[in-house]
Each structure stands twice: as structure tokens, then as C-alpha cells.
């Protein structure tokens, strides 16, 4: 792989702030969704269009659940949801599981998109990082990082990595496979993040405050 030029690196690594992402109301009125990545197609796409036409293989969004109600169904889709903020969320009606529970930030659950689920919010509103992948087309792995510790993650050309800071501040260093030193560094605050698309190399994550938390998603085509 040839060395990435500065313009190409800037195209593949983009910074986002949730405040700048349009909020799309749920059809049932129970919350709003902010879409931060959709695959394929690149960039950002209106959430309503995605829900209507379903032209994606993977999707990452942030959902604010403000009142109990039914979850939308997506046939042929695997769903994962990680609690970013809130003191609890329950989904009732999951086959073989009965009730799916999120008790604290960082808790993550996986469930089928076909499942007819109904949410309960025993302790008030909850914010989720939602990841959906079409079966047989894409797969996703989620991770949660907390505290003033450092960790590294390898990247490859076929992957998309989404980072989202839930609390505190984080420093992210990026080193491409063709470089012996870091080629870019970012400092991220709460509700901001990075989309890293098709970059081979490593990223280093460093929490800068005791309460720093960050969610990580890596999507790859099956």
C-alpha cells in the first residue's frame, strides 16, 4: 500500500460532533436517532432515507430513548446496543432471553433485528450507541474504554472504525502502516468522535481524566 497523502488521510479520517448531526425523530415518538456512519456509501446520509430504503450493510447511530415504547424491526439484521448514558434500560420480548438489561454505561447487548421488542426505562432516559449489520454482509465488534489508561488497536484497509467519547477527554494518535511515527493526533471531548475508513495502521487511545469513557466500533465486510 502506498503512503497516504495528507489530503487522502483527511478524507479517510473525519472528526464529528453529535451536536452537528441532525436528530431524526422515531416513528413512535419515543426518542431520536443521530446517524454517524452508514456502509456502503460513505459519509453521512439522512436517517429517514436509510430507514425507508434500507440500502446499507452496516450502520452506526446514537439513539436517545426518552419514553417506553416498541423498537423498530429490521429483518435480516444483527443489532448491538451499548449504553452510553443513563441508569438503566430494559427490552422485553427477546426470544430465549426474556428481558435484555443495560444497568450502567458500557453495558452491551446483541439481539436479532426481527425481534419485536418493547423498551422500559426504569430510571429515566437512556442514550444508546446502536450498531446494525446485515447478516452475511458485515460484522461489527464493540468495545468500551474507561479511565486514564492507554490502549492500542490495529486497523486494516477493509475496516471502518468509529470512536465516540461518552465522557471526559481522550487523546487519539494514529500511525499508518507506512510510517514509523504518528501521522495525526486528535484530542476529543464528550460527544465528539472520529470515523476512520480504510486505513491500515494503529491507533492509540489515552484517557485524560479519571471519568473518561469512550465507545469503539469496528465494522468489516463479511
TrEMBL record:
Residue stretches in coiled coil: none
Entries under InterPro entries matching the protein: RmlC-like_jellyroll (IPR014710), RmlC_Cupin_sf (IPR011051), Uncharacterised_HutD/Ves (IPR010282)
Source species, domain of life: Bacteria
Matches recorded under Pfam families: HutD
UniProt cross-references to PANTHER family, sorted A to Z: PROTEIN VES
Protein's name in the database: HutD protein
Organism listed in the record: Lampropedia hyalina DSM 16112
